[in-house]
Design brief:
The chain is α/β, with parallel strands linked by helices. The protein is built from 15 helices and 21 strands. The longest helix is centred in the middle third of the chain and has 18 residues. The chain binds dihydropyrimidine-2,4(1H,3H)-dione and zinc ion (2 copies).
């Protein structure tokens, strides 16, 4: 029996802050309370002067993703291990079938890749094409494999883009199944058009990347996806909201009572678009991701989105490409593999700028880094909570600890760090996964294959209400 006592800390959850010890037995939280006795065989972690919080959940990662002619350098082991070093104890990654590939085949492929994960994981499944078999497989995934969310890329024309007919078919199916549709909101036609136009003008470098994907492109797609979902009565979750344009669409819809959720990336909150004006090609290309980094006014809007509750979660879109991979786009910015890392740094940079910067409270920090994701994707209270019976996935947070972030010292399997040189105050001092410490004062003991696949049941009951609500709000026929 593995027993661990975290002693002397202050427990911080999304709704409470109090002094308590936390006893973990066989991977679960067995007790939370003051002055708990340590059973004879218990290992003890001293959390004096520190905060004990639910482990982070990153709802948006792409480990070893085959993408844009290459494969992301971080695999499920190295990526989840880096996450543990950063206080993140679960991820939700994406199964992305190639157009025409059976969903179940892709799902089994990703399940195989993920067997080496060091932390727990789940999957969203992308809908990149449509026929009756996709309709069928969505049912199988929900009913038999614990998938309760499906992803739609509205960009990446001629690759994985979902057109409006696919969105309508898939959102309708999601509603039937009690699953949450999610979207990468960028108008793929516009992006393609802008890319061709910029290349024709001789703009081939990474500085053209943000010009090809301006905020309107994201705002339009967010509006379209939200209105399609609203018409059908389906909820919707917008991944990596990067700008005011998309946030305004979410905020407007939520004000009408529509169940719309939004995610912000740590990168978008912390880094502005000046990175694309670097004279150093690799510096600039290292920041190529989609949607791109935005100007400071958009960043300020994202913080307001988190503060107001119109954005509920934070993620990374962790998708790593090394310099030699980025070089694939040396003469054509549209060929630079899109993606940046962040799983190891998300919690620390958000604490530093969020709590340290006076933007969000500690409890809000827990909500946006862990609990809200667990609730939206039906992992709560197994994850995202500190209570008896929950999984013992915890981070012991040292509010006074400091770290200077660098690709030279990080654990991520990539040679670049978008937060390079940033010194943060507030660090994960210890991380506990499944009741065992895996990161202790700089010592990483991530175990290959220790991660478990997390089943996430669908929400049929909740969705019945949404369907009825949409019917009630639908315009009625005018009698002649
Ligand atoms: N954006 C990225 O930058 N990388 C992976 C996929 C995506 O949508
Ligand atoms: Zn995306
Ligand atoms: Zn992504």
């Amino acid at each position: 029996m593995a027993t661990l006592l975290i002693r002397g800390g202050t427990v911080v959850t999304h709704d409470a802050t109090y002094r308590a010890d936390v006893l973990c037995v066989d991977g679960k939280i067995a007790a939370v309370g003051p002055d708990l006795d340590a059973p004879g065989d218990a290992e003890v972690i001293d959390a004096g002067g520190q905060y004990v919080m639910p482990g982070g959940i990153d709802p948006h990662t792409h480990m070893q993703l085959p993408f844009m002619g290459t494969v992301a350098s971080e695999d499920f082991y190295t990526g989840t291990a880096a996450g543990l070093a950063g206080g993140t104890t679960s991820i939700i990654d994406f199964v992305i079938p190639s157009p025409g590939q059976p969903l179940m085949e892709a799902f089994q492929t990703w399940r195989g890749w993920a067997e080496k994960a060091a932390s727990d994981y789940a999957f969203h499944v992308a809908i990149t094409w449509w026929d009756d078999s996709v309709h069928e497989d969505m049912g199988t995934l929900v009913r038999e494999h614990g998938v309760n969310s499906f992803k739609h890329f509205m960009a990446y024309k001629n690759a994985i883009m979902a057109t409006d007919d696919i969105l309508v078919a898939s959102f309708t199916r999601c509603l039937e199944l009690g699953a949450v549709p999610t979207v990468h909101a960028e108008n793929g036609e516009l992006v393609h058009h802008m890319q061709q136009k910029l290349l024709a003008q001789g703009l081939t470098g990474p500085e053209a990347h943000p010009l090809s994907r301006p905020p309107q492109v994201e705002g339009e797609a967010a509006s379209r996806a939200i209105r399609i979902a609203g018409t059908l009565g389906a909820p919707i979750y917008v991944v990596h909201v990067s700008c005011k344009d998309a946030l305004d669409e979410i905020t407007y819809a939520r004000r009408q009572g529509q169940p719309v959720y939004g995610e912000a990336l740590a990168g978008h909150l912390l880094i502005d678009d000046s990175v694309y004006r670097s004279k150093d090609w690799l510096q600039s290309a290292g920041h190529v991701m989609s949607p791109p980094f935005r100007s400071p006014e958009h960043q300020a809007a994202l913080w307001t989105g988190l503060q107001s509750g119109n954005l509920q979660t934070t993620a990374t879109d962790h998708c790593c490409f090394c310099a030699d991979q980025k070089m694939m786009g040396k003469d054509d910015f549209t060929k630079i593999p899109n993606g940046t890392a962040g799983i190891e740094d998300r919690m620390a940079v958000l604490w530093d700028a969020g709590v340290g910067g006076g933007r969000i409270s500690m409890q809000e920090f827990v909500a946006v880094t862990s609990t809200n994701t667990a609730k939206i994707f039906n992992l709560y209270p197994r994850k995202g909570a500190i209570q008896e019976g929950a999984d013992a996935d915890l981070v012991v947070w040292d509010p006074n600890g400091t770290r200077t972030i660098s690709a030279k010292t990080h654990h991520q399997n990539v040679d670049f760090n978008i937060f390079e040189g940033r010194t943060v105050t507030g660090i994960p001092r210890h991380t506990v996964s499944q009741g065992k410490w895996v990161w202790r004062d700089g010592d990483l003991r991530a175990e290959r294959g220790a991660g478990r696949y997390l089943e996430r049941p669908a929400y049929p009951g909740v969705f019945d209400v949404l369907e009825k609500r949409a019917e009630r709000n639908a315009p009625t026929a005018v009698e002649r």
